[in-house]
Amino acid sequence: MSTGKYDDIVVEVTGKIGIIKLNRPKSLNSFGGKLVEETISAFRELDEHPDTVFTVLTGEGRFFSAGADIRATELSSNKQYSNIAEKKLSFLGGCVGALELLRSVIDHKKVFVLGLNGPAVGGGAAWFAGVADIVLASTSTYMQVPFSALGLVPEYGSALSFAQSMGVHRANDFLMFGRKLTITELEQWGLVNRVLPVEGYQGSLKGFLEGQLEVNDGKSMMEMKRLQNAHLRDTRILAVYNAMDALAERCVADAPQKRFAEKKELLEGKIA
């Protein structure tokens, strides 16, 4: 059953499985439009759903998400500020949506399944994988985060969550150097639990979760999540805030602005 009240996502509930599908395939499910706000609302909705055990976040089309919408980001604008404080506060204000989205994910009571239907780049790779309870990826998936190349920092707690998931040295290789990880590497490095065929991926994902529900008690799985994550919660929230502050400082220093402006110009040239 679809709730049918969103523009940039689709929310479906089938039995004990709630699915949030990013639905901007023409923009590779980048974080523009109402996508962030609607995803926050959907997580809140499913958090209080009386029947669901699993909350799945996945994408429509060939990409899971390409991360930031370069054409819409403030980093590619020429906005002027009267002082440094005004400039930093402006950038911090632009981070509030992501901050609340990550808080909603970290505090989510249901078992959070990241369904990587395809490639995940930038924020699409960094925001969710490290804090997901289970990651199910298609054979077409790869992940890459070019934060250093853009003059940015690992976004919204990913420096900590990826170190927790794959180890410090591998996280450094991925986040610091922007290494592109293949689906084979993602599975070998422990970031992906299972790999499913790209053909019929969404059906296979749902079938796998339904199979788990046939064998395992839903409440017990949710309690397992609660017990494991209880001591991690505050450190993850602090990591999100610290990354937001570091990102704002990079923007105050104008580190990413030129690089984003160049990419925006390139994108607009391809569209024209």
TrEMBL record:
Gene3D superfamilies: 2-enoyl-CoA Hydratase, Chain A, domain 1 (3.90.226.10)
Localization terms from the record: Peroxisome
Keyword annotations: Isomerase, Peroxisome
Gene Ontology terms: cellular component: peroxisomal matrix
Coiled-coil ranges from the UniProt annotation: none
SUPFAM superfamilies recorded: ClpP/crotonase (SSF52096)
GO molecular function list: isomerase activity
PANTHER family, alphabetized: PEROXISOMAL D3,D2-ENOYL-COA ISOMERASE, PTHR43684
UniProt record similarity statement: Belongs to the enoyl-CoA hydratase/isomerase family.
Protein name in UniProt: Uncharacterized protein
Lineage: Eukaryota, Fungi, Dikarya, Ascomycota, Pezizomycotina
